[in-house]
Design goal:
Largest sheet: none
Number of strands: 0
Order of helices and strands: HHHHHH
Helix content: 55-70%
Oligomer: single chain
Structural class: mainly alpha
Distance between the termini: 241 Å
Shape: rod-shaped
Number of helices: 6
Strand content: under 5%
């Protein structure tokens, strides 16, 4: 019983020594722990400020230090767009741009066609207005002057009746007479009934005939022949009138002489 405390003290000494050794091992480790176990048994850890240089001796292993954290993967560089490249995305038109270009071309084409159609329509209307003005001015120029006191309405009816009378007279004749006589009778009646109007019509017809020299020359030739014939007819009419007057006078004198002798 007397040796029991001594035995307890001897048993407690090794336990205390083991505890102290375990605590010193934990608090003061002899090796440096890394996040990953070194794969190379020859790699030796150094302080952070220590720089290692590769050894020139091929027999000695190369001393390298592996970092605690993994290196980030390097990202590929962004492609730089070259504006001078014709096939780059910056210069190639998008579908919206192509659609806008087509719409612009369509609008320009439609505007050009509309402008051309408007110009042609304006030209056509201007020509029609010019023709209308020429026609109205021409008809107005055919009317006689107010100081002549010539009335168109009864005179035109007389000319029409004369032309119908000529067609009635030649209704049983050949086609040449049926076509020429009414025209000639109507023209003659017009010169008698409407002399100033017929003079204006003749001037208008002569203006159209002068555009064709051949027609103008034939007209002058025919007109000269007609005037010459009218002059000859007038002269012969005057001679016939004088001869008839002389014959009438001689016949009257003869009758008067017979009457005197009978008394």
């Amino acid at each position: 019983m007397a040796f029991r405390p001594i035995l307890r003290q001897r048993a407690a000494i090794p336990a205390a020594a083991a505890s102290i050794l375990f605590a010193s091992t934990i608090l003061y480790p002899k090796t440096t722990l890394h996040a990953e176990a070194p794969q190379n048994s020859h790699v030796i850890s150094y302080p952070p400020n220590f720089q290692t240089t590769p050894s020139t001796n091929p027999l000695l292993p190369q001393l390298t230090r592996k970092p605690i954290y993994d290196t980030l993967p390097t990202l590929p560089p962004k492609p730089t767009s070259n504006p001078s490249t014709p096939g780059s995305s910056s210069t190639s038109p998008t579908p919206t741009d192509r659609l806008a270009t087509q719409i612009r071309h369509a609008r320009l084409f439609l505007h050009a066609q509309t402008s051309a159609a408007e110009t042609r329509l304006n030209t056509l209307l201007s020509s029609l207005l010019h023709l209308e003005n020429n026609f109205t001015s021409t008809i107005a120029s055919l009317a006689p002057a107010p100081e002549t006191h010539e009335r168109l309405m009864p005179g035109a009816l007389y000319v029409l009746v004369s032309a119908m009378a000529g067609s009635i007279v030649t209704r049983n004749r050949n086609i040449l007479l049926r076509a020429s006589v009414p025209v000639a009778v109507g023209i003659g009646a017009g010169w008698v009934v409407l002399p100033y109007t017929m003079a204006n019509v003749a001037e208008l017809v002569w203006g159209f005939e002068k555009r064709v020299p051949v027609v103008a020359e034939n007209h002058l030739r025919v007109r000269g022949a007609v005037e010459e014939g009218w002059k000859q007819a007038t002269v012969h009419g005057e001679l016939a009138g004088r001869w008839s007057e002389e014959m009438v006078r001689e016949a009257r004198e003869a009758v008067e002489g017979w009457v005197r002798k009978g008394r």
